[in-house]
Design a protein that fits this description.
By secondary structure, the protein is mainly α. It has three domains: 53 residues; 109 residues, no CATH class; 221 residues, Orthogonal Bundle (MetI-like fold). It has 19 helices and two strands. The protein is extended, with a radius of gyration of 32 Å. The chain starts with 14 loop residues before the first helix and ends in a 9-residue tail after the last helix.
């Protein structure tokens, strides 16, 4: 390009360079505008997930607080029926003295108690007395002194548990989340006894009930969305406000209202008895079970199905149906072959939203689910707030996250995420 063809700005700068510079400035400004959102996502989403991943596999508590014991047990054969040597008993005595001074003996016991019942109280009582027991053990034997103090120190399973959990990274929480365990003697992975398998069944129940809720919201939400889309703007907007009304009411209030309605002495049963549809002795059990969970959560999640359907239906031209009918199609046939296929993107958006929200719900199943209507999220909450087994809770959370990602991937593979529309 000759000098004569170069276009300059009023400042004497080449136009192309000025445009590139201006574009770079605009990109920087745009990036700065989204920085707060990126920070919020990082702090509120990615960091908790990374912490959950860390907690689900780490075992630093044992490694950091029983270092002498871990070294002493390295030479011990866990598959044998013989207790560890005097060296191991001496090591754990000294480790417990140090842990008690740091106020960690109880934490150590709680962690090992998840694997073997009774270890928590053993470490708590031994930690308090261990410093005085050391004086006696120095004169006689650490093994004899500890076993004399508490017979549980002679339990070979206790030493196998300690040796097993001497690694800083473990996958045992994930095994527990899949109803499996590692045999402490042979180190082989095996399924838990049938009566102790709860988590895989809970995952299956969570998926099944979530699918039922998704189906129920679709069956109820489709005609509602269709009616709103067909009505004139004034009436349609009023009906849309009624659909959104539950969003303005507390989730706890909505859930407890269903308890009042569905209990055996509740409103619904009273109406059925009054109408003579059921007898007083045969009142229906519709609460604290799967039925109560499905009904309450269908009501709560219904707007998430109606809104995507309505937004898609509003964009479908009425001329499609008129054209099909004018060409000789029956109204029902025209609906299924012309109108309904155009609503598939809205159905896909609503279904994926309702299913993903349902699979992670906690409050409603906890209040109305009873024994048969609770989700895996309720078990996660139990381990976080009651049993304090955060490692197992984190492993269950990771498993739930992987399950949702897998379902999302399958949906994209067979249906196509590109087919989803929100309007």
């Amino acid at each position: 390009m000759t000098a004569a063809n170069i276009i300059l700005t009023a400042d004497g700068i080449e136009l192309k360079k000025a445009l590139r510079k201006n574009k770079a400035v605009q990109k920087r400004k745009a990036f700065l505008l989204v920085v707060p959102l990126l920070l919020f996502i990082a702090v509120g989403f990615f960091l908790p997930i990374m912490d959950m991943l860390r907690r689900s596999a780490e075992n630093r508590l044992i490694v950091e607080n029983l270092p002498l014991t871990i070294v002493a047990l390295n030479s011990w054969d866990a598959s044998s029926e013989l207790l560890p040597s005097e060296k191991a008993f001496k090591a754990i005595a000294k480790d417990l003295v140090t842990a008690q001074k740091l106020r960690r003996a109880t934490q150590l016991g709680q962690r090992l108690n998840y694997e073997l019942s009774g270890v928590s109280s053993l470490f708590r009582t031994s930690g308090r007395k261990m410093e005085s027991l050391l004086e006696k053990a120095e004169k006689t034997s650490y093994k004899e002194t500890l076993i004399e103090f508490d017979q549980r120190w002679s339990n070979i399973e206790l030493w196998r548990v300690i040796r097993r959990f001497s690694n800083s990274i473990l996958a045992d929480y994930y095994l527990s989340a899949l109803d499996m365990k590692r045999d402490l003697k042979t180190n082989k992975v095996e399924l838990l006894p049938k009566e102790e398998r709860i988590y895989v069944r809970l995952f299956g129940r969570t998926i099944l009930i979530s699918l039922w809720i998704t189906l129920m919201t679709l069956l109820l939400g489709f005609p509602i969305a269709l009616l709103i889309a067909k009505l004139p703007a004034r009436q349609g907007n009023l009906l849309l406000v009624m659909v959104l009304l539950p969003f303005w009411t507390s989730l706890l209030v909505r859930t407890t209202s269903w308890i009042v309605l569905l209990q055996q002495q509740g409103v619904v049963n009273d109406i059925l008895v009054t109408l003579g549809l059921i007898s007083e002795e045969n009142r229906l059990r519709m609460i604290h079970n799967t039925v109560g969970t499905v009904i309450a959560m269908t009501h709560i999640l219904l707007p998430f199905m109606v809104l995507p359907l309505y937004s898609v239906m509003k964009t479908i031209s009425p001329s499609y149906m008129r054209a099909a009918i004018s060409l000789g199609a029956h109204p029902i046939s025209a609906f299924w072959k012309v109108y309904f296929p155009n609503t598939i993107p809205g159905i896909g958006a609503g279904a994926i939203m309702v299913f993903v929200l349902a699979i992670g719900y906690y409050i409603t199943p906890e209040l109305v689910g009873g024994r048969t209507g609770v989700f895996i999220s309720n078990r996660i909450a139990y381990h976080i707030s009651s049993s304090l087994n955060w490692g197992l809770a984190a492993a269950l959370g990771v498993a739930l996250l992987l399950l949702v990602i897998t379902i999302y991937w399958l949906y994209d593979k067979f249906v196509g995420i590109d087919n989803i529309k929100l309007g």
